[in-house]
Amino acid sequence: MKINNVKIGSNYKPFIIAEMSGNHNQSLDRALEIVESAHASGADAIKLQTYTPDTITLNSNNPDFVIQDKNSLWYGRTLHDLYEEAHTPWEWHKPIMKLAKELGLVCFSSPFDETAVEFLEDLNVPAYKIASFENIHLPLIKKVASTKKPIIISTGMASISEIDQIICAIRNEGVDQIALLKCTSTYPADADNSNILTIPHMKELFKCQIGLSDHTMGIGASIAAISHGATIIEKHFTLSRNDGGVDSAFSLDPNEMKNLVIESEQAWRSLGKIFYGPTKAEMPSINLRRSIYISEDIKKGEKITEKNVRIVRPGFGLQPKYYHVVMGRTIKRDVKKGTALVWELIA
């Protein structure tokens, strides 16, 4: 998979996406500062969300439109009110994308309806993201797929059959650059609900790039995902959680994002391949293993016993597995203490 000139896959370091979401707190200056900070932290991409309150919900106080979950960060708020605060004004997209391009950051967005796709096409975005709550919106997905651009889909709450419908809808449009992100759609998410072991299963089942849209606190789940084959990590990003914002409570700050970038690459590099025996880097350590050494002076013709040989470091003598083999054998010549026992010394 490739977005702009950035290649995504198991042969490349993880693709790290900083999700701005509503953490701009309705300030364009802050939004631009988030872009600069994401770049400075080493992220590969900045992602926006493209909607207005009226393209995503209805302005209604009906209980259906009020968040009822008492564990939610947004309990008691109407959807329209929340999205009014969280949305990124459409006129901001162009300056944000311009700055990202100047910094060498990939910048793309999650459209939430068909008009957003048309708007983003006018801005020539290089890819699209489908949010978890939109992954059953097949008309939107087909509209996005019609652009023929790479598509990343969060799979929060989606069953296998629903994911299969998404993949089929996209591939039927002739698009094969697809990535699925394992996602738990709670904010913040609990590590116990992350089910990272799903990632290799998804990869085998759907034959595409797999990543993680991570709403847990910290970076542990992301690193675990990479160890199981994730090639993309998406994390919400803020300048400071202390500044507030609709998503700030479960977002990474710049130092945490920098740590994610560093540790995710370390995790990816550590995967290597199936390999046994000493690596090239370990070869100098071979001689620090134990081997059999003469521990007391031995005269020619004397027998090897537990009193005159020991298994010690370094490893220039016979391997310890020969210890009982050489017991009782005789020495060919006088040997000083500290001599490595080798076959040439044994009669």
The shape, in one word, is: elongated
CATH topology of the largest domain: TIM Barrel
What's the N-to-C terminus distance?
65 Å
| CATH architecture assignment name of the largest domain | Alpha-Beta Barrel
Which whole number gives the mean pLDDT?
97
Structural class: alpha/beta
Question: In percent terms, what proportion of residues is strand?
Answer: 15-25%
Q: Main beta sheet: strand number and arrangement?
A: 8 strands, parallel
Number of helices: 11
Number of domains: 2
What's the name of the CATH homologous superfamily of the largest domain? Aldolase class I
Strand order of the largest sheet: 5-4-3-10-9-8-7-6
Q: Provide the low-confidence segments as ranges.
A: none
Helix content: 25-40%
**Number of E-type strands:** 12
The level 1 CATH classification of the largest domain is Alpha Beta
| Alpha-carbon Rg, integer | 30 Å
The SSE order reads: EEEHEHHHEHEHEHEHEHEHEEH
Q: Would you give an account of this structure?
A:
The chain contains eleven helices and twelve strands. The protein has 347 residues and is of the alpha/beta class. The chain has two domains: 228 residues, Aldolase class I (TIM Barrel); 66 residues, Type Iii Antifreeze Protein Isoform Hplc 12, CATH 3.90.1210.10. The strands form three sheets. It has an eight-stranded parallel β-sheet with strand order 5-4-3-10-9-8-7-6. Helix 6 packs parallel to helix 7 and helix 9 packs parallel to helix 10. The longest helix has 18 residues. The chain is elongated. The termini are far apart. 38% of the residues are buried.
